[in-house]
Amino acid sequence: MLHLASKSPRRRQLLQQIGVDFSVIEVEVVERRQAAESPHDYVSRVARDKARAGLASLAGGADGAVVVLGSDTEVVLDGEVFGKPRDAEDAAAMLRRL
Question: Which residues are tagged catalytic?
Answer without folding.
Answer: 72
